[in-house]
């Protein structure tokens, strides 16, 4: 797999998979997409509602989502346990060249950002008093998901590229891994994805998408499925 860094519309980097027209983030803006889909629609509704938040991310990729989550944990003094899975990690040279800390005006976090990429796989790392991190090199289709997760960032490649990761069976496993009132957020809002999530048990909301995309999905595992979220 050949990959190269590109600059997206908001000045932040993403990765293009050469020859496949596949990108790790929206070409309209990597940081603004992640802030909108994963932080705004997923993490922020849970801040200060739990003593600790357990996050599972499908698709560690560039490490942008974990960096943004660390910043929110620091800002709100929110304890977060973060676990992420990735089958095809970035080369060290690409990861080190990504400009997220510069774009976020948090150059003080560059060393930690590089640590996310360089640290040992399968081992929980204490990053700060509020934030612990573990990354797993594995395939989601046969990986035993952690129990009692509060929030899932679902950031796989789109269904055309990875159809096996958008099936009802996958979302049923994710649903079962969530704690009550747990949230799953994703940039993808295709009708077949919504149906798969609904069949798995989720209450599915279509929300306005990040710039350049009309819609996104937030799916919730509710205690009472007859009660829709506000």
Short précis:
The chain has 230 residues and is an alpha/beta fold.
Write the topology of this structure:
Layout: E1 3-7, E2 13-17, E3 22-23, H1 30-43, E4 52-58, H2 64-76, E5 79-85, H3 92-97, H4 100-103, H5 110-118, E6 125-126, E7 131-136, E8 149-154, H6 168-177, E9 178-186, H7 191-200, E10 203-208, E11 215-221
Parallel strand pairs: 4-5, 4-8, 5-7, 8-9
Antiparallel strand pairs: 1-2, 2-3, 6-7, 9-11, 10-11
User: Mind telling me which CATH architecture this is?
Assistant: 3-Layer(aba) Sandwich
Radius of gyration: 17 Å
CATH topology, anyone? Answer: Rossmann fold
Strand content: 25-35%
Helical proportion, percent range: 25-40%
Task: Please tell me about this protein's structure.
There is one protein chain. The protein is of the alpha/beta class and 230 residues long. It has a single domain, classed as 3-Layer(aba) Sandwich (Rossmann fold), CATH 3.40.50. 29% of the residues lie in helices and 27% in strands. The protein contains 7 helices and 11 strands. The chain has helices at residues 30-43, 64-76, 92-97, 100-103, 110-118, 168-177, 191-200, and strands at 3-7, 13-17, 22-23, 52-58, 79-85, 125-126, 131-136, 149-154, 178-186, 203-208, 215-221. The chain has an 8-stranded mixed sheet with strand order 6-7-5-4-8-9-11-10, with helices on both faces. It has a 3-stranded antiparallel sheet with strand order 1-2-3, with no helix packed on it. Helix 6 (168-177) links the parallel strand 8 (149-154) and strand 9. Helix 1 crosses helix 2 (64-76). 36% of the residues are buried.
